[in-house]
Each structure stands twice: as structure tokens, then as C-alpha cells.
Amino acid sequence: MSGFEHHAAGNEARLSVPCRTSPEAGQRADALRRYLGAVATASVPGDMEFLDVARTLTREHLSAVPVVDAEQHVIGVVSESDLLAKAAVMAATHRPGPFGRLREHRLYEKSHGETAATLMTYPAVTVHPADPVADAAWTAARSRLKRLPVTDYRGRLVGVVTRADLLQTLVRDDTAIREEIETRILEEKYLPDPQAIEVTVDQGVVTVTGKVDVALAPRLLESIRAMEDVDKVVDHLTGIT
């Protein structure tokens, strides 16, 4: 059963997230917005019919998808579990039973819905672009969610982050940090010849060696320091004019 069935657990997760303001914890506290650019945002409108929702999940290889209104506000999440219950009711010749547990009874009653809005679980457990990655990971882990809708302050969908996205972010090693510096900072932003700079990373400490234009060096170093995965930058650059 999808974690979106456990809304109460999701709320508990939000309230139980530990404070992560220490320097050590801050290494992986970058805001989610940094990681949303490459995340495809799939959603369905509330009036989409059952079969079309099922086709969307299959086509996009998703286990759940946010349901949005006309203004892109997230109003709930429809999952494979919601659709399976509906499909089972459609295929059954008699009511399965007994429904002793309240959750099973509610699932059966909800399975009579015909659209995403009547099949979905609501309200959705969401996170915000400014939330630290570590806090979003706690929310996903404690409430057992595979996918978290990311909404702006008005509740509008801006992205979706998965458990895999969060895990990859939290366990980034020195090699991944170096690769990001070499591609995102050196190649994309500053240097016509990135090979002129050597970057080494040891437990979050970045050492930068090589020759660089004196006008570029301060901005280059500041960009590296701004990476919250980086604890310290050791400057061995030689300025050239």
C-alpha cells in the first residue's frame, strides 16, 4: 500500500523532524530547490477519469502522482493502491470481506470513485523548495513515502522529489563534490580552460590549485564556498593578469 495512505504518519513526520542547525548537520542542509531542476513534474487534474489516471501511472512509470486543481494547487495524491482497490471492485462479482478494519472499509468505500479527485488520498504530505534536504528525507522516511510533491507557499505544485533523489543527495561523496565543482562551476561559469585548475576534495575540504585570472579568482572561490557540501576551501591559486 502506498505511503500516501498514511497521512497521519506524514503529519507526525513533519512535526518530528529533528533540528539540523549544527555545522556538521549543515553539510547536507541545502534547500530542495537546488535539486528540482532535473525532476520531471507529473500530475493529473482532479477530473481525470480512473482509466486515464491508470494509463498515466503506467506511462510515466510512477507509483503515485499528485492531483491538482485548475490553478495547480495540490489537492491530494492518487496511488497504485487507490487504483488497485478500484480495479478490484470493478472485477469482483461480490464484495470482498469481512472489512473489520476501518482503513479497509474506507478504502472499499473510496474505490467507488470515478475520477482522480474521488479516488485520491488527501490532503497530501508535501514539502517546500526552501526545506532542507535532510528534513525532506526525514519526512519521506518516517511516513514511508516514495515521492513527495514539492509546493510553493500557495500550495501550487513546483516539482516532485523521490526517495532516490534524497538518498543520492545525502550520501554524496568527495568524488561527487569534485565533479560538480568541475562541471557546474569551472566549466559552466568561469573558466575557458577548466583543465588549468586542479580540484581535490578530502572529507568536504576542497583544495584548488592552478592559475586563474585575478579578476575571476574571488568569485570562483566564493562559488565553491557557497556549496553547503563544502566545509572548507584551501586556496592554492596563482593569479594571472
Automatic annotation (TrEMBL):
Pfam families: BON, CBS. Keywords: CBS domain. InterPro entries: BON_dom (IPR007055), CBS_dom (IPR000644), CBS_dom_sf (IPR046342), Diverse_CBS-Domain (IPR051257). The keyword Transmembrane does not apply. It comes from the Bacteria. Residues 173-241 form the BON domain. Residues 1-22 are annotated as: Disordered. Residues 32-99, 120-177 form the CBS domain. The keyword Cell division does not apply. CDD domains: CBS_pair_BON_assoc. PANTHER family: CBS DOMAIN-CONTAINING PROTEIN CBSX3, MITOCHONDRIAL (PTHR43080), OS02G0818000 PROTEIN (PTHR43080:SF29). This is CBS domain-containing protein. It comes from Streptomyces milbemycinicus.
